[in-house]
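Hey team,

Filing this mostly as a record. A colleague (T.K.) asked me to run one chain through the structure pipeline before their review meeting, and I want the input and output archived in the tracker in case anyone asks later how it was produced. No errors, nothing strange. Just documentation.

Input sequence:
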Amino acid sequence: MLLAFKLKLALACAAGLAGPIAVVPLVSDIAARRPPTWNEPAIVQIASGTLSYRAAGDFTHAGKQAEAPIVTVRVAKPVSIMKHQVSSADYQVCVQDGACRPLERSVAIAPDLPVVQVSWHDADAYASWLSRKTGRTYRLPSDEEWAFAAGSKFTDDGVPVDVNDPSRRSLGRYERESDRNISDPTVYPFGKFGSNEHGVSDLAGNVWEWTSTCFVRGQLDETGHITRQHANCGVRVAEGAHRAYVTDFIRDARAGGCAQGLPPANLGFRLVREETPWLVSLSHRLSKAWPARS
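Output structure:
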């Protein structure tokens, strides 16, 4: 049943021919002969707080399609998240270490370009490799953590539901997302889409980022509260200029695999780092003593 559901989603947003076969990516012979180089990622730490945002997933009320509710979430611990997305050069080190799957031929390898055309499984494998390499714990952010870190860059993708004509909701979503002109697949260097108020770069640009959150179907009561949810972890939430639900083995959603709305132009990721309490306290004191320079 799960495999059938994945295959159904993989065809839902088909937008062209399947992506190229995974072979050697675009990296010069000279660069290929060099030993892999890697630097631990720059981290932005965001203080704990409260987040109100629209829940991820599809919801119904009394058997009819309903808009996802606005929920308030308390983020109890500071969120330490990568300033930039994982670069293609850093991902390539993981490939050379034998811990990550090779990139597609069309992906350019550079330290200032985000890695794209990676599946959720690719991102999860990189997080495991990075944790082993550094002795720290890195993982994909949850959808809530991503929205919290995104701050003003997070977009409410709610669309009113016409219970008498549910198709209007889908049409409204396509129209709204088309108006944002986010279909450009060009992979731009870091900084192209600016930083938010926390100093996190390139959020909600044209690279969607995998999260750890599973796709859910839920039911709402008369007050709009969630009463029941069923998670399908074969489909994950990807965040960017709009929220997308993408089958976990898909590397290029433009070729199929997006559950609803316009498919993401590129699939990439950034990670959060788990911090021990004493390290968080030390980091906070150091940031006050020596403020970061832009």
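Quick notes for T.K.: Helices lie at 2-12, 29-33, 88-96, 120-134, 143-150, 167-179, 277-289. Residues 182 and 208 are 11 Å apart (CA to CA).
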